[in-house]
TrEMBL record:
Organism listed in the record: Cellulomonas hominis
InterPro entries: ComF/GntX_DNA_util-trans, PRTase-like, PRTase_dom
Protein name as catalogued: ComF family protein
CDD domains xref list: PRTases_typeI (cd06223)
Pfam families: Pribosyltran
Family per similarity comment: Belongs to the ComF/GntX family.
Phosphoribosyltransferase domain mapped to chain residues: 27-71
Top-rank taxon, per record: Bacteria
Length: 90
């Protein structure tokens, strides 16, 4: 079942909203047992989606090697200056 909209929820609220919402399909379980997987998410806000997916995959026997996100947002309720662009990489 779908959880409520995540907008405005903090870390605990997002985690509670997603708890048990991700499941591995029964026919996919055999292929995941012992498999190493990399989680990919489009936008990281609190990490609740990655954590919920990790739990479901590990419960199916997969080994989560890590996670990759394409963009990151300011966590709800955090100060606006939490992330600054560097003038030079490195």
């Amino acid at each position: 079942g779908a959880g409520r909209d995540q907008v405005g929820l903090g870390v605990r609220g997002r985690a509670a909203n997603l708890a048990g919402r991700f499941r591995v399909r029964p026919r996919a379980r055999a292929g995941l047992a012992g498999a190493r997987v990399l989680l990919v998410d489009d936008v990281l806000t609190t990490g609740a989606t990655l954590a919920a997916c990790r739990s479901a995959l590990e419960a199916a026997g997969a080994q989560v090697a890590g996670g990759l996100v394409l963009a990151v947002t300011r966590p709800p309720g955090s100060p606006t200056g939490w992330l600054e662009a560097a003038r030079e990489p490195g």
